[in-house]
Design goal:
Largest interface: A-B, 25 and 25 residues
Radius of gyration of chain B: 13 Å
Number of helices of chain A: 0
Oligomer: heterodimer
Helix content of chain A: under 10%
Largest sheet of chain A: 7 strands, mixed
Number of strands of chain A: 11
Structural class of chain A: mainly beta
Order of helices and strands of chain A: EEEEEEEEEEE
Number of strands of chain B: 11
Shape of chain B: globular
Order of helices and strands of chain B: EEEEEEEEEEE
Radius of gyration of chain A: 13 Å
Chain lengths: 114, 112
């Protein structure tokens, strides 16, 4: 398998549930990102990891908890979400965080919070 | 804070037409600018990346230009095809840091 993969592709969860999103990159990259894409809003950066170390947390609520066990895998743990958290969550990777590396995106997980 | 605006928000053209998508940004201190394509239910595909020192990049029927001083970029699509129908996103990288700032996108429909 090549590129950036994300599972699940679709997720429906209640506000009291705990779930996790998974991202895996097969590109040999060292940096991974989580983005949120809400309807009618631009893509928003949530977290950045470089060599498994979190280098940016873009003021994301604590109900979103990222985990990066190695450079190829990135998780987003979800708990006690709100309906306004419903969105497309996109994972991306790049060779490094130092510019000018291009970011490669996965297909996303469509999350619906009921 | 960097603001990225894309105009128009939606565009419908008949097949074969040449078209231009516009992107503007408020802070000219950028390192590069990327154009992406997003198909419904799918992730983003990078189309073109222009370094801040460059004026344009070309790939097939696509040509992207960058005027850093005026904070503008255009994506030119020649001889449009129905397969070009998608949302096109513009994103800029700041001089410092690595966070991409995205516009809301232009939704393009090319009709046969």
């Amino acid at each position: 398998e090549t590129g950036v993969t994300q599972t699940p592709r679709h997720l429906v969860m209640g506000m009291t549930n705990k779930k996790s999103l998974k991202c895996e990159q097969h590109l040999g990259h060292n940096a991974m990102y989580w983005y949120k894409q809400s309807a009618k809003k631009p893509l928003e950066l949530m977290f950045v990891y470089n060599f498994k170390e979190q280098t940016e947390n873009n003021s994301v609520p604590s109900r979103f908890s990222p985990e990066c066990p190695n450079s190829s895998h990135l998780f987003l743990h979800l708990h006690t979400l709100q309906p306004e958290d419903s969105a497309l969550y996109l994972c991306a990777s790049s060779q490094g965080t130092r510019l000018p590396y291009e970011q490669y995106f996965g297909p996303g997980t469509r999350l619906t919070v009921t | 804070k960097q603001e990225v605006t894309q105009i128009p928000a939606a565009l419908s053209v008949p097949e074969g037409e040449n078209l231009v998508l516009n992107c503007s940004f408020t802070d000219s201190a950028i390192y590069n600018l990327q154009w992406f394509r997003q198909d419904p239910g799918k992730g983003l595909t990078s189309l073109l990346l222009i370094q801040s020192s460059q004026r344009e990049q070309t790939s097939g029927r696509l040509n992207a230009s960058l005027d850093k001083s005026s904070g503008r970029s255009t994506l030119y699509i020649a001889a449009s095809q129905p397969g070009d129908s998608a949302t096109y996103l513009c994103a800029v990288s700041p001089d410092s840091g690595y966070a991409l700032n995205f516009g809301k996108g232009t939704s393009l429909l090319v009709t046969p």
